[in-house]
Amino acid sequence: MDTLRQSPSPCSSRPSSPRTPPFEMFGPVGIEAVLDQLKIKAMKTGFEFNIMVVGQSGLGKSTMVNTLFKSKVWKSAMPSLEVPTPQTLELHSVSHVIEEKGLKLKLTVTDTPGFGDQINNDKCLRPLDIEFLRRLCRTVNVVPVIARADSLTIEEREAFRSRIQQNLKTHCIEVYPQKCFDEDINDSILNGKIREQIPFAVVGADQEHLVNGRCVLGRKTKWGIIEVENIAHCEFLLLRDLLIRSHLQDLKDITHNVHYENYRVIRLNESHQLPRGPGWVNLAPASPVQLTSPGCLKVRRRAQKDSKDDEC
């Protein structure tokens, strides 16, 4: 049985923000200082952020991650005809600490070599992609992208984006940002614009080139230089703004408060199906028959005795 399909909806367990109107105060009490406290704590402890990149080999996943954080986070392996295609899916993770203006970010990147290498999904999502996304979107925040978008014309890119959006809608695949997590009208407007652009058409590059007297990140071709951070060339800036500038904390909150809690519920439910060995603790409420059984009465008397001893 697939427990992931029976997991609660991600939209049903996120704690709602307080809607109670504030009381009128007679004067300041220093609440605004909490922001300074949070900033000081963040500067000391830093942040943690985990990313898993999934896609066929040779799509530039390593380059995209390096471009995203402007550092050599992941070293790509040079393709070789002698190296066979991986037959099993193995996860490879690497962690780095990135510091910017005194703020540290512990970044963990997980690669999935071998996934989808035997599938041609140039035109639309294939069954493996659909099933993978259906399971994955209940466990993590999914942000799809169109890799190597510079190999497509503008018309081909938009047609491909429309097909992917239709596939996601048809198969009820909720990618980030999920519509059910919009807390107010401002979130709806901002996230609505983001959802219209998904999947982002991106180009990765970790080398700088001189363009009109300035150094830019880009890929050099015989037709010119494709600038990564130029919105007219690709949508890489939209992806980076979503993951880092505007929604990083929201991504972490949803992961912790929704996806992890759903995972924890599933694991707890699975634990009740295991054989009851020594030290078994039943977390389910006891039935009336169990409450009146001799064993249960003995435990209750012992508990009452212990409580009386504590009072003494």
TrEMBL record:
Query: What ranges does the record list as Low complexity composition bias?
Result: 7-17
Septin-type G domain boundaries: 1-270
- What keywords are annotated for this sequence in UniProt? GTP-binding, Nucleotide-binding
Similarity remark: Belongs to the TRAFAC class TrmE-Era-EngA-EngB-Septin-like GTPase superfamily. Septin GTPase family.
Q: Which Pfam families match?
A: Septin
**Encoded by which gene?**
Sept12
The question of whether Transport is a record keyword is answered with no
The opening ranks of the lineage are: Eukaryota, Metazoa, Chordata, Craniata, Vertebrata
Name of the protein in question:
Septin-12 isoform X4
Q: Which GO terms describe its molecular function?
A: GTP binding
Q: Which domain of life is it from?
A: Eukaryota
Please give the PROSITE patterns that the UniProt record associates with this protein: G_SEPTIN (PS51719)
Q: Which residue ranges are recorded for the region named Disordered?
A: 1-24
